[in-house]
Amino acid sequence: ISTALNLAERGYNVHVLEANKVGWGASGRNGGQIIGGISGEDKIARQMGAGDESLLWEMRWAGHDIIRERVRSYDISCDLKWGYLDVAIKPRHLRDQQAEFEALQKHSFPHENKLLSRQETRDLIRTDAYIGALLNMGNGHLHPLNLCLGEARAAISRGATIYEQSPVLRIDHGDKPRVITAHGSVTADMVVLAGNAYHFVERKLRGSMFPVNSFIIATQALSDAQVNAINPRDLAVCDPNFVLEYFRLSADKRLLFGG
């Protein structure tokens, strides 16, 4: 949907073939945390020239700016809030956070960021589980499905067409590729495959991506006293473990916890 909106804004004739409903997969069912980063960033940095370091840094945060601008421009109601805690469980996590903090300072990051002690972390999220944290007010959280639906409406307003319940059966390749569904077809100049782990159309790509199971649960709406006892600043929180845990509050004060 984001790609469709980008293309529609640039004047392209865009048709989205959605197998289910807009936001049905991870686009609508993720944890809703906005965290800047690029997978394998250190390796990429070593492969790039010294003059490209600033470009890589800008790419790291470009998604945040896109979200900020779209929410503003298209008046998307998605409970966007800024503030994130990268919490530390082990001493090596503290070292990683120190390196990240130094990078933020080096690049004159415009949003509040601060290394926190165990007690300062406890003051923010009322638990002794963590030995420290990095507070970054440039990261944040939102309602992911509402963002996706808002972007879909924006794309339609720009002339895009979205066909739900239209799983693609095959793609006939050629100068003008033809995308076939059970109910019709679309002939295009270019085709973008945006099915993520649900993509099974192109056989040669099947081994390059696979689904990862994740779990998330939401509590009943909490009282003000309970919110104050858990997360009074309404921050997004995530630990750095490979099998990670994350949590945040929804707009109606439910605790969302996943991993």
> Judging from the principal axes of the Cα atoms, what is the shape?
globular
Mean pLDDT: 94
Our measurement of the CA-to-CA distance between the termini, rounded to an integer number of angstroms, reads: 25 Å
Number of beta-strand segments: 13
* Total count of helical runs of at least 4 residues: 8
The proportion of residues in beta strands is 15-25%
Structural class: alpha+beta
CATH topology of the domain at 33-142 and 213-258: D-Amino Acid Oxidase, Chain A, domain 2
Please give the CATH class of the domain at 33-142 and 213-258. Answer: Alpha Beta
- SSE string, helices as H and strands as E: HEHEHHEHEHEHEEEEEHEEE
Q: Over the alpha carbons, how many angstroms does the gyration radius reach?
A: 21 Å
Query: Judging by the overall fold, what is the CATH architecture of the domain at 33-142 and 213-258?
Result: 2-Layer Sandwich
Instruction: Give a short account of the largest sheet.
Output: 8 strands, mixed
Helix share bin: 25-40%
Low-confidence blocks of residues: none
Domain FAD dependent oxidoreductase: 2-259
Pfam family, one: DAO
InterPro entries: FAD-dep_OxRdtase (IPR006076), FAD/NAD-bd_sf (IPR036188)
Protein name: FAD dependent oxidoreductase domain-containing protein
Summarize the structure.
Pfam families: DAO (PF01266). By secondary structure, the chain is of the alpha+beta class.
